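Exercise: predict the fold of this chain.
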Amino acid sequence: MADLRISELAALASADLATGDFLAVADVSASESKKITVTGFIDKAITLISDATIPNAKILFTANTLSGDALENGTVSGAKLSANSVAGTRLANNSTCQLVATLPASGSYVGQLALNTNSDDAYIWDGSQWVEFKAAGSVNEIIGSSAGVVNVVVTQVGDSVTISTTLDDTTEASQFLAGPTSGGGATTYRTIEGDDLPTATTTTKGAVVVNGNGLTLSGNTIAINNSVEAEAADYHVVRYNANGLVTAGRLIDSTDVPVATTDATGAVRPGTGLEVDVAGVLNHSNVITGGSGTKVTFDAQGHVTASEELAATDIPDLSADKITTGQFSTERIGNAAITGPNLAGGSVTKIGGSGDTGGVVVFPAPDYSGQYFYDSLNGDLYLWDGNAWQPITITAGEIVFAGTYSASDNTVATVTTAGTAAGLTVGSALPAAADTNNRYYVIVNDTGTGTSPAPAVSLQAPDMLLSDGTAWTLIDVSNTIVAQQADNISITSISGMSATDVQEALEELYDEKADKAGDTFTGDITLDGADLIYDTGSFNTTVTATTATAARTITYPDASGTVLLAGNASIVNADISASAAIGYSKLASLTSGQIIVGSSGNVPTATAVTGDVTISNAGVTSIAAGAIVNADINATAAIAFSKLAALNSGNILVGNSSNAAASVPMTGDVTISNAGVTTVVSGTTSTAGKVQLSTATNSTSTTLAATPSAVKSAYDLAAAALPKAGGTMTGEVVLDEIKETVYTLGVSGTISLDPANGSIQTSVLTGAPTFTDSLESGQTVVLMLENGASYSVTWPTITWVTSNGNVAPTLTAKDTLVLWKIATTLYGAYVGSYV
């Protein structure tokens, strides 16, 4: 293969990369290009990646891909674990509670549990010792008692307690534990008395007294107080006393049963036609062999005595209207019995026509062979031969309609079934006259000049062309019709017309019609359809009216112009009156504090005012802090000193190390008063060890004297001084007064708690804040917060110091809190609320 640049090589799809494919590599050590397999390149290249260079986003962490051995011991802190993220299945055995036969010397952490498997005693490690504990509400001691009748004995073996009870012996027979027979009192042994038992009622069990009324007490047994001879074989009529006890009885006889009547049930005896056998069974006295018959005889009691078949004389004559179902066979219909009035319409000949404008005949389903079908549109007659409708041809000299003829292009326009049989074809010229089309004719349907074989003369509708077998002959019907005068043709007036002939009707119609090209209507126009369609050529415009639920009126103004539709953005400036005074509420919503500014596309756009100047929704403008620079001030502004920031008495403006003007007092060998008077500090006039300084007012030099020891002392003092910008004091510092900076925080959103802004910070919330931690170890911030109860406050990670433990405070309308940091832990304390 010829040498190619890499960009000229055919591309290899990533999906087609295989293990054995090669990559080109420049071997620097050998100063030549070599090949290496894809897998070999990746295996070694991964080991050559520089440490800490692969971003986390480029690593795909999927389930079960990072083993525990890959983590360095002690690298996962508690803060890196999500709340409730460690499942029970991830805890090691004995991690929360050690199961031991002997308690270990110490626990793994404060709060670890231990269970002695020998004694089942539970312990908890408090940091210094194992403390045995018991469940809340547990019973620690059970004490028995032998006082009273019931004796309770408690026996304990280890952690198991056995409770047993015994009762004292009675002093005599038939005693039981009971209280006094009347009133309350101690429970003792005594015998049962009548008053111990409740009296029985009709719904409650209890004690009763046997006092007669059919019952008697025989020793300790209740018995029925009655004696009568027993009867186990027959059923008797019995006599009983007032207690319902049977006192006597006898066999039942017929006089014991009441006689049945038409109104009451009772005893009966067999009459005529009935008999009773020795077993008391009631039967009919009539006997006949079972069977069936269409004609029967019966006796005075209604019993069937005999049966036989019906005879013809048994059936009476019936009128025809009694026959409502079934069919009569042809044998039941007499010859010449069905007359013309009895035939249904279409029973002999069905009538139909073409189903479309192409002249295609729709044939009906036949009812029987020999039935006729008449095509009323084409005038053709057909006969059903049992398989198909056969045309009945005319053989007695009549002419046959074959179709229509277009004179404008000299072709056959339409054909009938007969015309098709005669050889006429739609779209083709007339066939030459021949015997096959003799007596066939076509009707001209438009204007034109005929072309052979049609007559080469002027033709127009409704002329007829008739074939005589040798030529097509013109039958000039159009001139005959044209010659006819419309006023000679009478009509029947309709729809209120007064005309009596065609001519008058046309004139009357012309006077009353609406011109298609446009006209004037003097009355209301009612459209019964829902749509009004304007035909504009390529596309139509449809005006649709929704069904109204009440009378509606649409009024057009006395003005010219275009009617606008909902959503049509075609209103231009000229369409709006100069005095329209459009209300601001008609404009689109404008975000609070924004103004309308022309965009880069010259479109009015709602825009927030940003940059050096801002504006509120009340129209108040504000210049941003630090926005005004030197170039913004006129050279002749002559800004009054009163417009400058306050300058401490006796201080001067000096450029500091940041090249910014700073207010500082003049110190050192020369001082200055607030009147501008400078003073050389006493003791600086010695000529020994002179220090030469340049004055600020001229180029001359002023020499100030100081001894070498004084200069060294001043140097030592400067080295030991605490810089104004801050520093670290290692010894004791006594200050008469400290003034801390008070800083106003933001009122919502993300708010940084940074001591660099001041150690006392305030905020009057107007929205939900999210405080962030910017404190360093050893720094403190006093936070005075208002409206904390009105918004959801999000704190950074804070260890709260309260009497209830690490619990965030419940904020009120005005609260004071103190935040401080030790190492990396931020602590917080709630001081209290204030008015």
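Check your answer against the key: The CA atoms of residues 144 and 153 lie 5 Å apart.
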